[in-house]
Amino acid sequence: MAPLRDCQAWQDAGLVLSTTSNEACKLFDAALTQYATWTSNESLGGIEGRLSRLKAADPNFTMGHVIANGLELIGTGSSVRLSRELDSAMRTMMMLSISQPLTEREKLHVAALDMFASG
Hints:
This protein has 6 helices and no strands. With 119 residues, it is mainly alpha-helical. It has one domain.
């Protein structure tokens, strides 16, 4: 398996992430890799373990919230109308997205997830 990408590696790939936490970038990469390959790699702590650690590494990392909320929305059959917890998580993500500078790509991810959650 390729090494997990830190902030600089994401930037070098032209995919800047709005966090200064190398740990958050690597945890995001681990979660994204597991999602994209439909695996729960226990050597990476599984998807749930990575998402929990990702939020702890940088609680204000909007894309960390995007991937966690997105996986919840598409993977559980839940919705913001049925789950107060998911509704609160989406509201937190939206507040974070307007309280900090994001790249245009990150803004589009937030907008897409907001539209998906709204039905």
